[in-house]
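Database export, one record per block. Field names are fixed; values are copied verbatim from the stored entry.
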Amino acid sequence: LLLTSLAAMAKVALVTSAGVVAALYPKDNPLLTPPGLRVLARLSNWIFLPMLSFTALAANVSPALLARMAWLLPMELFIMATSYALALAARPLFGADAVTFQAVAVAIGAPNALSFPLLVTETLCEQGVVADDFDEPEDCTKEASSMLFIVSIAWHLAFWGFFNSKLMRIQGTHGLDEGSQRALLRGLSSGPRSLGERAGEVLRRIFLTPSMAAIIAGVVVGLLPGAKDALFEDATVLRPLGSAMQTLGSPLIAVNSLIMAAS
């Protein structure tokens, strides 16, 4: 088990090292610059992540799988809430720096829940001590991927429903005096809004993001009789569409790992 864990971490270290090097060299014109990272992040959020989310769920989800893994949703919300509460308990360590504290608290409460685990999962499923528990080697990766994308449903609900607004406030503090920063971070400068307006904004952020829409579509397609086979199994007119979406989703892990390492 120790060697298996070390193999997974070694892969993570190598991939992230590539991102760090690309952000630093060549010194006069690095491969990954801040503007380039923003473009890659948009590509990832609008194309790579939705395509991988959709295909992973549509190809593998089933009523039995959803029933067996439903407990992951409340568990993920509990973990995120607990992590954020622990981060809030560390507030005295940051002194008067409210902006840095809020950024760190959000990072602790809503860490990367997909790209990093998928990177580790691929390596773990290649190890015999893990793969031996499955009938076919690829079953390990399929089940782990489905589990992670089901977990990501709860992550999206928490992030877009709660944490994203905090990040937007943090972004808006640049150039403000300390008092204005604190007011913005507490949501005191956004103006009065009704409960319905706030709820509508939260629902739009949750369900109209490309990745969440792809997750919902993937679950629906996976549960529709025949749709899964038409897109991913049988030689039908829809098979090229399913194959194209799988190809478009495949760069996600590498691209997101490079973005995180180079940021």
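Remark 1: Residues 137-171 form the longest helix (35 residues).
Remark 2: The mean pLDDT is 83.
End of record.
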